[in-house]
Description:
This protein has 7 helices and no strands.
Amino acid sequence: MQTANDTPAAPLDPxxxxxxxxxxxxxxxxxxxxxxxxxxxxxxxNTVEYELRILKILFVGWAVLYTMEEGxxxxxxxxxxxxxxxxxxxxxxxxxxxxxxKEVDYFAAVxxxxxxxxxxxxxxxxxxxxxxxxxxxxxxxxxxxxxxxxMAGSRLFVxxxxxxxxxxxxxxxxxxxxxxx
Length: 181
């Protein structure tokens, strides 16, 4: 992975690399898009796929903070994960900017989307996080009343949190001082 000024990024530690690889893996996203109803058009499908990819990246990073106990491993893992996301976003920004001929800040868009989801989750006070994320997700896809699109966002949210928790529990078994809760 290269940074915006083409200097090589520092190699990721194995835990961060596992999380990052999971975050950018598209298999679950493709499955969710493929299983949308046939009535959803190609343009909407492309939007849903794009938004699902962002949602997954966001909530992998959020799950690190949500599932791990306070401590240096948690902080270091969160920082290294978000740095990897920042590096990826810089590459996307640079490539997109070259293609369209103007500057793009993809990381700012990702950060804005995270702030939106977290703000809505705070308003909900934890009553129904999957529902909150699903409804916001459908709105971000331009289909705020589409239950199928909302469910796709909810499913990816729940699945992502569960898989990150499972992965971090495996890490905790190898390093007891970093127990997720």
